[in-house]
Amino acid sequence: MTRARGADRRASIVRAAFEVIAERGYRGTSLAAVADRVGLTQQGLMHYFPTKEDLLTAVLETRDEWDLLHFGHAESSMTVNQLADLVDYNATRPGIVQTYTVLSADSVTEDHPARGYFHDRYERVRAGMTQMLERHRDELPPGTTPEQLAPIAIAVLDGLQLQWLLDRSEVDMSAGFRTFLTLLGIKPD
To answer: CA separation (Å) from 168 to 125, 158, 172, 187?
Structure first.
């Protein structure tokens, strides 16, 4: 019973951290603010997450786990339609998208604790995107390769997320991504 209660408490802390990071950014987030959000003291929170970096790691890992649970596969095995579905899914969870966007942008600074995570994640995502596009090589614009197009596709996804966060009434990231696929010559379902 105690272990389950501890897991529930950890999960509620991570959810609260998502919210606070989305509102304030990583640097503006304190353990005290997260603790307050879940009704704990800072010392009580530190029983579960001894440092802010430990909490950040849990937030990032949890986001990846949610995607894996929802879609049941890794980036490397995604199909174009599954990726389009992931974009649709992200449109239903603006707080998660905002947290990810804020953290990924913050991580470009040298001393950011998530820099390594995002470096490794983008490396994996580029490899997965390259594999996905390889399955459509014959449909791609002449003179292009999956390796060339993978970082561009990721930039489109990230850029659409950012624009959508700034103006959801004007930017439809799901339709925008499907339009991009069409421009590549790929016809999603």
So the answer is: 25, 14, 7, 25
Helix (H) or strand (E) holding 89: helix 80-90
CB 34 within 8 A of CB 13: yes
pLDDT single digits (tens) 55-98: 988 888 887 787 766 665 555 578 899 899 989 988 988 888 88
Angle between helices 173-184 and 146-166 (to 10 degrees): 160
CATH, range 1-51? 1.10.10.60
User: What are the domain boundaries of the chain?
Assistant: 1-51, 73-184
Go through the chain and tell me how many residues it has.
189
Q: Which tokens go with 104?
A: 């990924």
For residue 43, the tally of other CB atoms under 10 A from its CB is 10
